[in-house]
Each structure stands twice: as C-alpha cells, then as structure tokens.
Amino acid sequence: MSGISYNIVRSARRRTASIVIHPDNRIDVRAPSHLSDSHIDAWVASKQPWIEKKLHFNTHSRRQHQPKTFRQGERFTLLGCNYALSVEPSTRRQVILNGYQLVCRSPLPDHREALRKQITAWYRQYAARYLQQRVEHYAQLTGLTPTLTGIKNYRSRWGSCHIDGRIYFNWRIIMAPPHIADYVVVHEMCHLQHHNHSPAFWQLVASILPDYREAKKWFKLNGLSLDL
Q: 3-state DSSP call for residue 218?
C-alpha cells in the first residue's frame, strides 16, 4: 500500500494514468477503466516522493484563503489594493468605494451571510465591467475578439475559452493586481487563435505579455487566497 489517500477516477477513454493534486491537497488518480486497484496503488507508491513534495508546497508555500468575517474594519482586496470594510445600517442595499473604504450599506448590518451575498454580488458586477474593458483593450491590440464575455463562479480555474469564441472569467481575479488579472484576460484571448497550450500559444502570450511567467507564478503562490 502507498499510504497516501486518494480518489480514483476511471474512464474508458483513458489510456494512461495521471495524478492530480488539488490546492487543498485532495488527490485524484485518473486511470483507464481496466487498471486494477492494486496496480494503481503500486504506481502511486512509486510516485510518493513527488507527491509529498507537492503536498509540502501546497501546505507551506501557497498563501491560504482566510474566510471573511464581514466585520467592521476587515480588509478586502480589489485589484491588489486593500480596503477597510465599513458596514452602515440602511434601508437600501449599496456597496461603494470611498477612498480606501469599502462601504456596505445594508438593512441587515449584523447578518454575516447577507453581507457576504451583497458584497460578493458587488465584486461580480465590478469584475464584469472591469474585465470587459480589459478585453476591449487587448482586442484593439491583437485583433482577437470574443463572441461573448462573461463572469462565472469557477472553483478550480481562472477562465475558459470556448470553441465558439465565448470567454468566461472567474470573478475572483478582480482581487489580483491589475497586471496579474491582465494575464488571465490575455491567456483566454490567445485561446481564440490557439485552442491548446502549444509552443505557438505561449509564443503569442509572450508577444503580448513578455513577463507572463511572473503572473503564472503569482497565481500558483497566491491564487487560493482570492476569495471572500
């Protein structure tokens, strides 16, 4: 036995096995349907040093998410800047930026879940407007134009590009610094031309954002922290 806890995901279409280690240290082994449990366990055991290295990185190097309490003065991040939450009782719901304050007016100022939903909705709306502007900016530079741009609540990806030209972004990237969020925009827009991660794809990304590797590294280290 390997001594490592993992979940097996079998597929008749698969020809080889692979190991996926999620940021929260869950491990999936994706394997062909014909592969026995004992064969998989022996193979996982042979990969134990590599797995332990990845688990150690997740635990000790990644910046983890700290769930928000939605209390007065708590720090919220938008485009890499921190804003102190100011909750104000009000008969109507409204979220605005006032200097370096994130002002949330609510009829339920002491209800954490209500504040979470209200502020999350505001983040999503802000992300939709901002990212649309960035798409339009890079469309002018590259000539690459999506058929539709939208916001999604992805849990394990920052964006997606569909074969019909639709592009969706994870609203949480609005918390990252502007040049980091731009990387996701450029990455997905480059998929309009290259629907893969071939050398040609990365060459196109580099021609638009020469320092894209910095952004990839930033997401690897800080991506988990982008949440409310």
A: helix
